[in-house]
Amino acid sequence: MKKRFLYHRLKKYVDHKNVLVITGMRQVGKTTLMKQIFDEVLNPKLWFDFDNPLDMLHFENIDYDAIYNNLLKESGVKKERLFIFIDEIQNLPVITKIIKYLIDKYKVKFIVTGSSNYYLKNLFPESLSGRKFLFILPTMSFKEYLFFTERSKEEESADTEKNIDSVLNNYSLLEFKKYETDYADYLEYGGFPEVVTTTDSKTKKDVLRNIFASFFEKDIRLLSDIKDIRELRDLILLLVPRTGNMLDITKLSSESGINRVKLYDYLEFLQGVFFIKLIPKFSASIDRSVAGGKKLYFADNGLLNVIGR
User: Fold this and answer.
1) What is the pTM of this model?
2) Most buried of 47, 189, 258, 265 (most Cβ within 10 A)?
3) For 85-129, how does the pLDDT look when each residue is reduced to its tens digit (9 = 90+)?
4) Phi/psi zone of residue 77: left (φ > 0), alpha (ψ -120 to 50 degrees), beta?
5) CATH class of the domain whose range is 6-136
6) Would you tell me the crossing angle of helices 64-75 and 95-106 to the nearest 10 degrees?
């Protein structure tokens, strides 16, 4: 099975004592990525999916030593280091205290996924701040798109981080033309793994619509405290034509009928769940860069195009 490029970076830290936290938007491939790591770990290991209430039962004992002993018993070993993999960690906020205790006392290794920085930033207390490595898995880059669609055979390794100038200098106009059609497809449908590996354009659009619907069903209805979902939906529609432009909060507030404080909360939420990106205006002056406005971008072009139609 093909591997996302982030896999190579993650492998470097598998044996490190810190928790590995994989986060990113829903359906970008976090669970698949963690399963690939799980399959390669030779130590005793256990997998838990916190979308399943029965899996959470293993961590609901107030006696943390008892939790460890039960996990050890389930793994079938006594002395080797235990590896625990947890999918959708944000569903059980108390887990961070257990993680800290089991790391400190028993050297347990945790590798976990969480669907949103918006929840994870509050989920991990300060006491765990020095015990985790956070990895953000975005939708596929164009280079990954080419690799997963068999248009490129060269897989990026963990040691080949190149700046944009070195990449551009290695490509001729002929090579750019070679991938022109692919790039047009990438700009139209984006980089969600299921979309990239689907060949039919109608199905691609259906998958993107389902991703958008899932965002509202899970990130908003189940996990957030947002009461007026239609208000947020309408705000997202107003953001679509502003993509790539400086965001005028005063004008946006006037058009949406949402007060500025609430509007900033919505934007923070959308950025925290990786739905949008707000990029500070570039300036050689740090003061001007901080004080200036921000440009708005959607996290995935395919999602942007589906919403805007």
Assistant:
1) 0.87
2) 189
3) 999 998 888 898 999 999 999 999 999 998 776 566 666 666 566
4) beta
5) alpha beta
6) 70
Backbone region of residue 150 per phi and psi (left: phi > 0; alpha: psi in -120 to 50; beta: other values): left
Class of the domain covering 142-307: mainly alpha
> DSSP characters for 80-140?
SPPEEEEESGGG-TTHHHHHHHHHHHH--EEEEEES-HHHHHHHS-GGGTTSEEEEE--SP
| Cβ-based neighbour number of residue 291 at 10 Å | 11
In tens, the pLDDT along 48-92 reads 999 999 999 999 999 999 999 999 999 988 778 999 999 999 888
On average, the pLDDT of the chain sits at 87
CA 271/CA 116 separation, integer angstroms? 9
Q: Cα separation of 13 and 207, whole Å?
A: 33
Q: How many angstroms separate the CA atoms of 182 and 231, rounded?
A: 36
Please check whether residue 118 is in contact with residue 27, taking contact to mean a CB–CB distance below 8 angstroms.
no
C-alpha 85 chain-centroid distance = 17
Domains 6-136 and 142-307 share a fold: no
